[in-house]
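dude i think i finally got it to work??
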Amino acid sequence: MPSQNANRQIVFTQKNRAELSDCPYEPPKEDEVVVETLYSTISNGTERANLTGDTNISIYAELKEATFPRTAGYSASGRVAEVGSNVTSVRPGDAVVLSWSKHKKFNTLEEKNVVKFDPAKISFADAALCHIGTFSMAALRKTGLEIGESILVMGLGILGQQAVMFAHAAGAVPVIAADPLPERREKAAALGADCTLDPTRSDFAERVKAMTSGGVNAAIEVTGLGSGLNECLDCMARFGRIALLGCTRDKNFTVDYYRKVHGPGVSLIGAHTAARPQADSSRGFFTQRDDISSILKLLEHKRIDYSALRDRICSPADCSEIYRSLAEDKDFPVCVQFSWEGIK
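look at this
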């Protein structure tokens, strides 16, 4: 096993600055697994908020002030390096999806946060997208989508693009994808959207209603903006359902609940990934592990294609420049991953 100083991790050392730093290797406790990370995925919105010193980064409480250093990364893949004495589901050498990991060479996690997969059928790069994909999967399940119903995905970052993929695979018709950026709309079209629209156009809601016989049955709001929610509400059919997936960091916005929610009977559904069962999946409410297993099946049977989602694979050694771009560039690519092979 590596020595105490053989581990590396990406750390936000101060506002808008990232460094690849040395950190200790943590041997596993009896119920833990050490995984040598091969790929990790950047979650643009969450990591930008941490990098830029946002104080509203948790659903539990808002910080009084931004403090550093901060660490990030929660969706990765790799091979098991070491297991604790009570671990039974994996063994050294197994390929696994990691949940709630870090951008880190060796991650030490509870056994429940690793899921085994077959690397002969699914690439490590694809597997590193599975945990973040469960966020979109859970939101789609909560809408109660039925085959043949229409759906709107508002916001086409990494979560919105996966929502488009899953909605298409689940039989939604049409899948309407909305984002102001044309390159994101083009990506959504390649991933399964039947129609892509610019939500800033004055006739946006009219166009959605025209192609859905009066309004969409379901929507996934991923922008986290009040304007995004208002635009979704303007597009809904009577008794429509909206899953609120985007993190709403700005609380100061207004919704006409009386006319847009109460009157048409629209359901607003909290869809943060923490709002899921820890055990025992049921209709519309799957556990994290069961959602990962579902995504692995979709990948294995070619129902979704993560290669079409991926934009760049970078080295963690280049993290300073990559995160500078994330902080400053509004057009930062949707899906950027780190390859940890070669990092010592």
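The longest strand covers residues 32-41.
im so relieved honestly
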